[in-house]
Amino acid sequence: MEYSYEISDPQVLRVVAHPLRVRLLGLLRADGPATASELGRRTGESSGSTSYHLRELFKYGFIEEDADRHDGRQRRWRARHRYTSWNSRELSGTAEGREALRIMRLRQVDELAHAVQEFDESDWEPGWVEVAGMSDHLHELPPAALGEFMARAGEVLAELAARHAGDPDARQVHLWIGGFPRRPEERA
User: Fold this and answer.
1) Model confidence, pTM
2) Residues 63, 50: Cα–Cα separation, whole Å
């Protein structure tokens, strides 16, 4: 699997920003290859609907057929990339790009809300309950410092994932890193 799919076309970003498509891609990345029928059961959608959206993801290069696990009757699909990324500055140069960015940010917030709603402390050992959660911070930073924070956070996560690969206590963990400037009139 390649590391990242760099998007520079707002139309391609809109393709993956579709609610079901982004969910299907997320499932393929998190859980591995699956058929349209399997994904339909997981999402509560018909296999016809998931099949259509999988073909769209394939058409734009997000997924591929899993030739290693082909069963002859149904196509198995797998994600081609671990992450999807884009340059917000480049995409924000057009109204279409700004709209695609807005839609994608809202999809990310939806996923965050879903993860928070699904987390039930009674399902987890005390060690997980103690460290799971969210925090928010408000600091004054210039754009370069926010960019450095984002880059360093990614580096720290990659280093931790590599260091703890194969740990029997390791689980997939939802992580979101975001930073947005406040308008001056929003100040308390």
Assistant:
1) 0.80
2) 13
